[in-house]
Predict the structure.
Amino acid sequence: MDKRTGKSVLLFPDAGKKTNDHSFPKSYRLSKSADYAFVFARPAKSADGIFTVLVRPNEIGHARLGLAISKKNIKTAVARNRIKRLIRESFRQHLSFLRSVDIIVLAKRGADKKNNQTVRRSLQAHWKKLVG
RNA sequence: AGAGUCGGCCAGACAGUCGCUGUACGAUAGCAACGCUCUUGUACGGAGGAAAGUCCGGGCUCCACAGGGCAAGGCGCCAGGUAACGCCUGGGGGGCGUGAGCCUACGGAAAGUGCCACAGAAAACAAACCGCCCAGCCCCUGAUUUUCAGGAUCUGGGUAAGGGUGAAAAGGUGCGGUAAGAGCGCACCGCGCUGCCGGCAACGGCAGUGGCAGGGUAAACCCCGCCUGGAGCAAGACCAAAUAGGAGAGCAGUGGCGUAUUGCCAUGGCUGCGGCCCGCAGGGCUCUCGGGUAGGUCGCUUGAGCUGCACGGUGACGUGCCGCCCAGAUGAAUGGCUGUCCCAGACAGAACCCGGCUUAUCGGCCGACUCUUUUC
């Protein structure tokens, strides 16, 4: 695989460098059922064969991420963990690009069959479509 | 060298970089009585052998509980280990394998009940299809008749050797015996009983004795012995906003009693209808209290713990001493990217904690042992 291809996929050339913008503390996650209900009520949607992404603007001033990876769609705990980690990582790297929105990512059946690069590209497309 | 058996161990590695999470020590800010929270720095920890299935056994928590019995469920050769077990260790019986070894729900069928397809005469207080043997009536054949010999049908009786059916048909093989047969008799094997010996025991060995009891099935009911109260960390304890609801207290004023302050009694308060009063309808505001929801804190990881050594034990394991702290998340951390290397990385993710069992699993390493072949 070409080294340049891997890096050029990122939206920001400085992604991967040490910047405060790329930390991902607990306050940047949806942690209450009320937060989830807020997004599910009036979401903007974006979907492909891997994920369904729901977005709703919030008043907090930064983006927050919530995950809904069902046991029904992805069987083993190991596969669910992998998908969640990839989503969080992509969210973290695009945090300065994402504005003040609450995001919920739902994984579809078969998402665990895709490799890491495919998953990353899918997520970038979702961020662009919903926020850009 | 090949094939195999048993036991133990590992679970891609390294580097750079960006993150997540816990603890410790700091820094900044906020609330400010210890302290708590936000952000942040440094250091050190951060999934498994099965974390899985949730099939057993415990700890822990709450509820229930005088004692005993019944029911229900589980377990089932013997001894030991253990907190406990359906687990483990050692031993015995049975089965498989040339062997190292492996498998084994392995108590009771002379307490009772049920079931046993098909085949077969018969599947259970035994019975007799084809047979074999004996006797009798009548008939046939042979030698002159009686008589005798042979044969056939039928009748009565004996028999369980042989045939055939079946997973299984009142032990097996052999010799004797008999009309034919039969443990009828004998020898060996099997079985039962008795005694002695070995063993804690299961059980084994030896000797004597009985001709020999009687189908299978108890992961069918059942009998015998032993065990079991129920629910689970969403257990349980604590803090506790908003809203609704509950309990209590107070709230302008007016009149009376009282020397007076205080106090006591009555009325009454707020909203709507109404100009006002009466009246009717409804309960206002403030504070306090308790229950309790969202949410939060604890439970939450120091434990039947791990390592090493010594001792006891065949072993499971136990005892003692030195040392160690080895995940604790909670919309849920342990990862992303880049590079290098190789034998190319399987199954798979902690959720209160332990002990087991079962199931999934790429490959590799170590030790002990067995069989076969070759060489010396």
